[in-house]
Amino acid sequence: MSGPSLRKKDAHSSIHEAALNEVKELRELYQKCLENREIEKALQVLEVAIEHWETRTLKHAEAEEEGLYKEMTMENPDLVTTVIQLTRDHDLMRRIVENMKLRLQTHEPDQKMITLLDCLVIIDEIHNEDEMNKLLGDNEKYTGKLV
After folding, report:
1. Mean pLDDT taken over the chain
2. Fewer CB within 10 Å, N or C, the chain?
3. pLDDT in tens, 19-77
4. pTM of the entire structure?
5. Measured at the alpha carbon of residue 38, what is the angle toward residues 108 and 55, in degrees to the nearest 5?
6. How many domains does the structure of the chain reveal?
7. Domain assignment of residue 118, yes or no
8. Do residues 42 and 104 make contact, with C-beta atoms less than 8 angstroms apart?
């Protein structure tokens, strides 16, 4: 069973916004490190950014998949396509984070990491919007059952 905050649109949206704001700040810090040629600091920022994606956003995604998404599709089978799309977003983010980790082992910090960070942010922003509008947009139907 998913936690009650995952089912409440405002609370769920706040979780997403907080995590996104943090990763955007890390992206900007990484960019500044590159501009200032602070390679060691850039590496540290990337490690923190990767850890953030793994421990915040992707752990949240896992909780959604194991709880909320299953519950929502059991209650409303019409949501299956939406859940498949949302799960695909999670898969894309996981793949990009894995790519970043591999790249970090074999490359110096570079502009390519900015592109990967930007991709993560864009996918997550679209994902969050779809989750709020397509999955939780009509939340009143479900609030009485599990909250």
Report:
1. 89
2. N
3. 999 999 999 999 999 999 999 999 999 999 999 999 999 999 999 999 999 999 999 99
4. 0.86
5. 65
6. 1
7. yes
8. no
Eight-state DSSP code of residue 136: S
Distance, in Å, from the CA atom of 3 to the CA atom of 97, rounded to the nearest integer, reads: 25
Task: Evaluate whether 67 touches 6 at the Cβ level (below 8 Å).
Answer: yes
Contact 133, 5 (CB under 8 A): no
Q: Which residues contact 52 (CB under 8 A, 6 or more apart)?
A: 19, 22, 23, 26
Q: Does residue 47 lie within any of the structural domains? A: yes
Q: Which pair of structure tokens corresponds to residue 120?
A: 């993560």
Cα-atom radius of gyration of the chain, to the nearest Å?
A: 17
Instruction: Decide if 26 contacts 109 (C-beta within 8 A).
Output: no
Q: What angle do CA 77, 146, 63 make, to 5 degrees?
A: 75
Per-residue b or e along 22-33, where b marks 16 or more CB atoms closer than 10 Å to that residue's CB: ebeebbebbbeb
Residue 121, domain extent: 4-138
95 in any annotated domain: yes
* Three-state SS at 32: helix
* pLDDT attached to residue 143: 35
Q: Which backbone phi and psi does 123 adopt, to 5 degrees?
A: -60, -45
